[in-house]
Amino acid sequence: MLIEEMNTNQNNNIQYIANIKKIYLFSFFWMFLVIIPIIVPYFLSLGLDMKQIFQLQAIFGFTVAILEVPSGYLCDLWGRKKTICIGSFLSGIGFTWLYFIDGFFELVLYEILIGIALSLVSGADISLLYESLNYKNDDRLERTKAMGNYQFSKTTAEAIASLLGGALVIISFKATIVAHAFFSWVPFIVALTIIEAPYKKMDREKHFENIKKVFKHLFFSEKLIRLIFLNLVTWGLSTFIAVWIFQKYWQDESISLGYFGILWAGYNFSIGFIGKQVHRWEEKFGPTTLLIALSLFPIIGYFGMAFASGWLGVILGLSFQFSRGITQVILRDAFNWRVPGEFRATANSLSSLFFRLGFCLIGPLVGYSIDGQGLSNTLIYLGIGFSLLFITLSLPLIKEVNKIAPDKIPSSHS
Q: In 127-230, where do the E strands start and end?
């Protein structure tokens, strides 16, 4: 019996190590977005203006926002694999349909469909990763490395896809979209092979109590988890807004469209590189230094791009990617290991909900400001706004972190 049990545990361990690799592969192809580095010029070529482009992203964000928590809750109740498979299937349909779209109304429907797909996958893949890691009983360093690898797989995919998209756009926009549609079906195929890792599920009969438990844990249990949550949302939003400004900025600086894919790839490679180094930097410099860096980099980026021009402005835009690389490892790791496994997907969905709602409110205003006030003034406004958020959100988190031992930040309650 003992030998059989040991063999079973060994087989399970091998199984979940393989599962982790499949999750990395899924995240790679999920982010293999060939169309992204030229999406703004493509929308402009269809006759849209920046206001409409930001409206589309607000619609997409709103769709994700209203479905984030329900889909995350269903993921916690029913399992990760089901929602990942459904979401990746809908994504394949949406990106295939994009080839045939040529008007604003159809783009609205497209954004809604992709929003539904993303809401189903969001939180499910990372929850499955942490449950597979939990089964292996990895120590904190290994968990941080795993988060860095997860982030690296996504950003590397974006970078390679950007190079491909930048090369294909020389042929035509449609060639880029065909390639994007082809690769959009790979995540669904990978998802079918993923194994559901065991985790404690919430009671299917006590929905109100379940949701109450999640909110209590995130917002009322301890100040640190609340501040981690708010900073994760805020600094994720700071870099995401910049993503939708980059291509307009490059265009205004008369940078050739052929360079867009290379620039996008370089930006994303930098995120992956930073993410892979975070566990070493945290061990060497401590979490406080990294928290200051991830908060200040977006502010430097907004003011830098506002007052610089040409390639200097492009280089300063890397500040956002440095922040993103740090944020997606240190804050997301700290967040996920302070959330019980039974509602981890719901908690991740709540962070995405706040993030999407933030973009729904700010995104259209940014678009209006760019069209009416100019890009430079808009960048200055954003720099001022996030400077205030650094004072009101980042400094309290840094103060709270300094009260405790650094190795307790990602303390696990799962």
A: none
State the maximum Cα–Cα separation within the chain, in Å, rounded to a whole number. Answer: 74
How confident is residue 15, by pLDDT bands cut at 50, 70 and 90? low
DSSP string, 21-49: HHHHHHHHHHT--TTGGGHHHHHHHTT--
By CB atoms closer than 10 A (0-12, 13-18, 19+), residue 8 is: exposed
How far is 402 from 155, CA to CA, in rounded Å?
31
The pLDDT of residue 305 is: 94
Say yes or no to pLDDT of 243 above 80.
yes
pLDDT tens digits, one per residue of 364-400? 889 889 888 999 999 999 999 999 999 999 999 998 8
- Which residues, 6+ apart, have CB-to-CB distance to 383 below 8 Å? 299, 302, 303, 306
Q: Please, are residues 326 and 278 in contact by the beta-carbon 8 Å criterion?
A: yes
**CA-CA distance, 42 to 62, in Å (whole number)?**
22
In this structure, what token pair is assigned to residue 147?
Answer: 């988060």
Instruction: Tell me the residue type at 307.
Output: F
Instruction: List domains and CATH numbers for the chain.
Output: 12-408 (1.20.1250.20)
